[in-house]
Amino acid sequence: QDGFLEGMKDGNDQRPPVHQGALSQFQEIWNRSGVQKQVSEDYEKGNTIVFTGHAMGGGIAALATLRMLEMQRGLPKSVFCITFGFPLIGDEILARGVRRKKWADQFCHVVLRRDALSRILLVPSISVSKPLEALLPYWNRSMQSAADSMGSTDLPMAETLPGGIPEFVATVVQHCSAVSNYTSAAKMSPNNPLIAAVKPLVKLSPYRPFGYYLFCSSSGAILIENHYAVLPILYFSLQTLGANLEDFILQHVGYGYILPNALQNIVKFNELSDLPLSDAGYQDPRIKTQLDALGLGIQNCQARLALRAAGQVLKQQSENLAILEREYPKKMETPMEKLAEYRQLCLRNETVYYDAFKKKQRGNVDFQANLNRLELAGWWDEIIQNKFDKDELPDDFQCRKEWITRGTHYRLLVEPLDIANYYRLGKNEDSGPYLRNARPRRYTILQKWLEENNVIQQQQPSPTGSDQPTMLTQDSCLWAHVEEIACLTLANNAGVHENSIAGLEKSLRPLIDANGLSMEELVASNSTFNRVVKRLWENMTPLQKSTSPISDVIGRHPELMN
């Protein structure tokens, strides 16, 4: 596992595993042959970089592309990958990460209809290891035969095919069917208990496709951008009825023979959910021709239904997003406005909303603020746990600027209240520090969206009048650092206390540099921040004071020491 895939972690902080052989070969080529230096230099010159490869070479090319995309984070994407007979290299975590980073259009995987090897990693290795011992040398010899007969229109064939081909092809088709059918069923009925019960009983391949796919036949090609449709096409186009068994083996080394004609007739699917179930209804007759050539014609009703279902999944994701947009004003804007009003009310009363909320709540204003806090928590948990985690929203949802901004505003305004509530109830005494053991996952996810997409938050200037909104402190966890120091000071725990001070100073430094502190709140004489900072400063040595960011805070706001 290479460190560059750290950026592909999922919501559970899991890093995607990839094919060990492809990763090892990639690392050897990338680190020892000067490729990395050459590619980086070309990229810096503004050149477009295209990685390409056949079979497992395609896997190496895909890893190289991922490496470059990670290295050039935030810059215009001019790195692309084109593979031929690509046999997959990663699981759903990697595939989802590529989609959510909006990198899918950087990959184009070209697959011939009967190329069995491009599906080989959908099969457990134990099921095909014996025939592969004979087939891999045969493929190598066929590739050499292809090089020797360059310009011929016939598929390369080194010699008589090795034995066991019918059984090998049947095994590949069987496992393609299992993976495709299970994945489609799980996507269409994610809460079906029967599907959940079957999963631990059936050992399915973890490999999943990512990027765009160009499925080719001798008469043309179909470009598929819908990733839900890739597995069904990999299966249904491979079905053996009426096929020449030699094609399943020879097409893997026949891309140079078939593609010149296929690339002259490329058709792109835009809306699979409207795919006709009869020969009538095609707006573009070329679609029918290419579907028939891939074995996906009207006679293959199961294939048509699977493709329509794949289209319906994307359509439903868009509809789910539209529902969230309609619900947003009532379910988020209204309670957020009420909490902002609560914060301003506290400031007018010369107190900090964090400290006001932390005190024993007596009035209706505090009660209503708590209800709004809980209402917003439920709504964001619904979005993240029941929509985002289950892929029920568009893949680029967490990359959309408006939702990153909404999530960040919610986190900055409301998480301090969650921290206040945690320490008000004394939960730290049983569960430990908030940041270590109790921070809700929704805040971690929302912060990750902001950090990964480099969205710059528009900060409001400090007010000139009491009714104008003040800027929110740009680290929603600042109060947790402050609280932990306050608790440890009372407990006189010197060793842990030093670590907590380091945590506070680490949080303060970037906030000071970016003018991200809401000093109107922090310098208030009755604020927890004021009391903790004053005590820390009084107990610091001159050397500590000279290096601590707290000196910058006090230098700009000497009233803290009053």
Automatic annotation (TrEMBL):
This is Lipase 2. InterPro entries: AB_hydrolase_fold, EDS1-like, EDS1_EP, Fungal_lipase-type. Gene3D superfamilies: alpha/beta hydrolase. Residues 10-120 form the Fungal lipase-type domain. It comes from the Eukaryota. Residues 338-538 form the EDS1 EP domain. Keywords: Cytoplasm, Nucleus, Plant defense. Pfam families: EDS1_EP (PF18117), Lipase_3 (PF01764). GO terms for cellular component: cytoplasm; nucleus. One of its GO terms (biological process) is lipid metabolic process. PANTHER family: EDS1 EP DOMAIN-CONTAINING PROTEIN, PROTEIN EDS1-RELATED. Its main location: cytoplasm. It is found in: Cytoplasm; Nucleus.
